[in-house]
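quick one before i forget lol
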Amino acid sequence: MKKYIVITGASSGIGAAAAKAFARRGENLILIARRAELLQSLKDQIAKISPESDVVIKICDLARSENVLALWDELKSYELKALINNAGFGDYGAVGERDLSKISQMLELNVISLTLLSHLFVRDYKYKPSQLINISSTGGYSMVSNAVTYCASKFFVSAFTEGLYYELAQDKEAKMQAKVLAPAATRTEFLAPWRRMTRATTTT
């Protein structure tokens, strides 16, 4: 039976780069994001990189946590070997001055959906050889002015994943590994607002 690596937020940036890297190793992929055109373009690129890789695309807005259970039901027909929770975004500005609907979406995506997907994956794959990789940030280990809520959301990702690592290690029957990846500023769509935010922070 084919095994797949699931990548959320796969339409650009780290998610797209990870998909191409795994494709070069001949892996089968399930790519999840909101933007259908970008996902299809990525699938076409991967077909040239690794024609033998099976690539499934799923259009899903994970900023709406109610979509998580429906997505997981769709994934039950596949055998998974890894889940990479990469989907996330940042909202920058002083606490008390931000659009609350955008803050809510950020927390839904960065925290709630990631946590739900992690729980579902552990529930179904804890005793199978598998890997859960949650994408945090260097902002998940230090607070930055004008990015307090974003950093706090990534603090949660880091703490949750590290805690899960120790929990799995205590279960001698568990075969799953949990890992956290905490990149610094990376040349993606995410970078421009982060640069503006850090520049403003360092000049005040």
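fyi The first strand starts at residue 3 and ends at 8.
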